UniProtKB/TrEMBL annotation:
InterPro entries with a match to the protein in the record: Rieske_2Fe-2S, Rieske_2Fe-2S_sf
Domain of life: Bacteria
Record keywords, A-Z: 2Fe-2S, Iron, Iron-sulfur, Metal-binding
CDD domains assigned to the protein according to its UniProt record, in alphabetical order: Rieske_RO_ferredoxin
Protein name: Non-heme iron oxygenase ferredoxin subunit
Membrane-spanning ranges: none
Record bears the keyword Nucleotide-binding: no
Length: 111
């Protein structure tokens, strides 16, 4: 069964250099969507090192396409989810993202 898409925000509320959060309506997973120069990327909104929201604080760097967990300083590549420095060694989950009907949608497609 293909997971249902969850509405994150209207496209007008996610401009380049911005991020928005939402939740997968089926699994309850927290999702953060980033706009990097017009391309959208979605990650699980949880550091793989510690259960802390990546969207918390001011760790998003659109120019470097990275996000830092402000709790302990782990940094992740937004495009791949892979960790860029300690203390994180595991990637964060990446989710599909689509634009449809003037909205941004994503889903937790993990098995």
């Amino acid at each position: 069964m293909i997971p249902a898409w969850s509405f994150i925000c209207p496209t007008s509320e996610l401009l380049p250099g911005e991020m928005r959060t939402g939740f997968d309506e089926v699994t309850g997973a927290a999702i953060v969507v980033f706009n990097i120069d017009g391309t959208l990327y979605a990650l699980e909104d949880q550091c793989s090192h510690e259960e802390f929201a990546l969207s918390a604080g001011d760790g998003f760097d659109a120019g470097a396409a990275s996000v830092e967990c402000v709790l302990h300083g782990a940094r992740f590549d937004i495009r791949t989810g892979r960790p860029l420095c300690a203390p994180a060694y595991e990637p964060v989950a990446r989710f599909p993202v689509k634009v449809e009907n003037d909205g941004v949608w994503s889903r937790d497609d993990r098995d």
